[in-house]
Amino acid sequence: MSICAFIFDLDGVLTDTAEYHYQAWAALAKELDVAFDRQDNEQLKGVDRMGSLQFILDKGGLQLTASQKHAFADKKNRHYQQLIAHMSEADLFDGVHDLFAQLKQAGIAIGLASASKNAGMVISRLGISQDFDYVADAAKITQGKPHPEIFLTVAQALGAEPAQCVGVEDSLAGLQSIIDAGMQSIGIGDAKVLEQAQWIYPHIKDLQLATVLKQAAN
Ligand code: G6P
Ligand code: MG
């Protein structure tokens, strides 16, 4: 099946914001006296804000009221927004401009499927907002990753059948979302974590578009 859309995750795929999410969650976990390391964080990548907070609370055996949870989620978000405040076009990962140019040249649509409510701000700071044919609104997604809703929403908006789409993710939850959406999958990061992906590259700049398109068509 020939590919007509590439649907990207943002944090950890196009820029290093996955690290900032980790730092902000780690600070909150410390405040709550819950042990939380990078291995725990792998489970959180791609997971929405309240789901991520719940993971930390469950890990610490903590029970909070809904309003306490919202207060802690807001606190993490304020910290995260401080961490991304200095971001600029220089923070776009190497290789993204080239990849987008190649996709455009090939007539392949570009979509964004980020669970982050800060995604609009981040892509604007990176100077790539205009490159996307469609950007999912995380606030309108009712079932977060690993549910396939967000990838399917973007595919539908682009007028592409799932099988004609390639999803690109750095997270386990996001990869599951792509697979359950019936799309072809690229993992960016550690091959041991992302072993279920059809193609795995350590970094977005390593992605071999010609190879993917050739193999995806078979
Ligand atoms: C992405 C990130 C997660 C983050 C989630 C929600 O999926 O991978 O780490 O928790 O977005 O982000 P937000 O900016 O809305 O809190
Ligand atoms: Mg990610």
Tell me what the structure shows:
A 6-stranded parallel β-sheet has the order 3-2-1-4-5-6, sandwiched between helices. It is globular and about 50 Å long. The chain has helices spanning 17-31, 38-44, 49-59, 66-84, 96-105, 119-126, 149-158, 172-180, 209-216; strands at residues 5-8, 109-112, 134-135, 165-169, 184-188, 199-201. By secondary structure, the chain is an alpha/beta fold. The mean pLDDT is 97. It is built from 9 helices and 6 strands, in the order E-H-H-H-H-H-E-H-E-H-E-H-E-E-H. Magnesium ion binds next to loops.
Provide the succession of SSEs.
Answer: EHHHHHEHEHEHEEH
Multimerization state: single chain
Unique ligands: 6-O-phosphono-alpha-D-glucopyranose, magnesium ion
Name the average pLDDT.
97
The number of helical segments is 9
Q: How many β strands by DSSP?
A: 6
Provide the spatial order of strands within the biggest beta sheet: 3-2-1-4-5-6
Largest sheet: 6 strands, parallel
**Inertia-based shape:** globular
Question: Which structural category fits the helices and strands?
Answer: alpha/beta
Query: What's the gyration radius in Å?
Result: 17 Å
Helix content: 40-55%
